User: What shape does this take?
Amino acid sequence: MTAWVLTAAGAALAVALELLEALAIVLAVGVSRRWRDAVIGAVAAVVVLAVVAALVGPVLLGALPLALLQSVVGVALLLFGLEWLRKGVLRLAGRRAPSNSLKEYLEEREAMEALPAPEPGRADWPARVVAFKGVALEGLEVVLIVAALAAGGDVAPALVGSAVAVVIVLAIGVVVHRPLARLPESHLKYAVGLLLTSFGVFFLAEGMDVEWPGGDAALLYVAAALFVVSQVQVRRVATV
Amino acid sequence: MRTLRKLVFGETWTVPIGVALTLATALLLRGEGWWVGFVVLAGAIFTLVASTLRT
Assistant: This one.
């Protein structure tokens, strides 16, 4: 149950935060150029990501022995998780600009408005490429994280968490601006870093034939240990 | 390629090097017992501390 809830929460938060960044880019392109081209770029990226997911998922789930799969997943989650956690510590310590999708939206919009206006009746390739790149890059991280969470533990919570996140982000997209500005993105990303790193430690150890004392509950004390150390680091880095 | 490298390995080399050292240590100690899990945890903590202090 612990692993189910934490997998769903980790997938939901990671997917929501990455999708928010992609949404900020697509909205900026749509508002400053043409919605049609923004949507074409975004949909093309979603198609590419679906192909990647269809290739990565079965390869991870079907082709590798369990211990090797857990080790691969553990290493992947450690790489993603520790990077998110590192940035989270630096942001909370004031050593890095806070994560802010609204700011990203405004910057992207400004950059798009600086380009020559699209000609009527012709494809707006700069808009399509920017929307495609934004969705593809943010989405690729989502695909890799969800595939790793699903492959290491259970597919259901990873998919449930991802689906909830997609609904939430689309809802934010409909009533955008205000909710985007109020989200504590830096804290949420720090929390995702904690969860992904905890899963990374857990799965990598299981891949090395470790039987954790307490079973799945080990995720809780691993996360608690990482929380304490990262909070100490926030204070240390802030005072250096 | 640079974007893809940044996506997978992050912005610094400290994290991938730390994860590689953690993996190597875990492989050496594989099958020794439940405490190997705490060695992996210590590796993750060491990597986090090193990567935040170096930045």
